[in-house]
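Batch manifest, entry 17 of 40.
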Amino acid sequence: IIVDPTYSQVATVVAVFILSVISGTKPTLSEWKTKPVPFNIFYHVSFLRYSNELFYLTEIEQWKLNYNIDSVLENYGYSSENKTMDYLVLFAIGLIGRIISFIFLYFVDRGKRK
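Output type: structure tokens
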């Protein structure tokens, strides 16, 4: 809809690559937070940032009785209290993406449907 159909697959790959770069895995969220103003906001729009944190929190939770996981979470910039927020943000990003897609599909080429 936004990109010419011949370039849509390339645009999708580039978009996913950009979102994965700013996901907070490397550089970590702690490192992103120290960057100047426009750059320290980018990681908030990446769905991979929230899915990576949720995956990591779910996996490391089983080790919290045997190890001190707080220092590891701090290194990555994660917090064990963010699990519910990660679920909600992922749901919201999915819902907003579907609403935007619906609006674009409804209004683009509207004249051809009549």
